[in-house]
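Side project, low priority. Logging it here so it doesn't get lost.
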Amino acid sequence: MSIPYVIRHWADRDLPVVDPGGGDPRDEIAGVYGLRYRITGSRDVLYRPGSQAQIRLHGFNPGWWERAATRRRREYAGSTLDTPHWTEHESRAHQLTQEAGWEPAGLLSPLLRRIRATAGDGPCNGTSVWFNEVALRLETTYGPACAQLTALLCKGPTTLGWTVQRQTCFCLSEHAEGCSINFTAPGEPPIHYTNLRWGARFTEKNHQRQLSELNARALLI
C-alpha cells in the first residue's frame, strides 16, 4: 500500500538531513533543525531533544509516518533521525538562526498553540507559518472568516493582543481568491496573513481528483 502523498510531503520537508560542505550550516540542513519523532500508541510525536514542547500528529495510520521516515533514511546519508541528541551541525545552525532573530518565539509560540483555530469549513485546510527576516508570514487555505480570526487574535482576555493595521476581506465573495490582513504585535515584527481559496480556479471535484492522483503516485517502500 502506498503512503498518502500528504504524509510523505510533510515528512520530507520536516525531518532534517545534513549535508555539510564547509559553508553556513543553515544552508546545509534540509528540514527542521533538531527535529525528532517517536510513535506513542496511535500518534506520532514530534519534538526537539531537551525541549518540553511537542507536536502530536494523529488522525492517520502512524505506520505511514514511520515508512516515510524510513524512506528518508535510505535516500539521504545525512539523516539525523537515528541521533538521539542534536548534532553539532544542527546546534550551530540553530544558534545562528536565533542570533539573526529569525525565530520570533514571542510570536510563534502562542500562535502555534492556536493553530487549529486557523482551519475553516472549506474542502481543503492548510496552514503555513514562517519568518522571512522582515515579517511573520501566516498563510491559510480555506481558513476561517476574517471576523473570526481577528476576534481570536485581537480581542478578549485569552487572545494575543494583536492589532489590525490593514485588511482586505472578500469573505462574502464567491469568486475572490482570498483575503489578507496585516497585524502588529507589541514589540514584535509585523504579521502578514493571507487566506487563499481555490474555488475560483478549481472545482471541489477537480481538486479532490488531483489529490487522489498525487496519492496514487506515492512510491511504495
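Brief comment: The first helix runs from residue 5 to 14.
Revisit when time allows.
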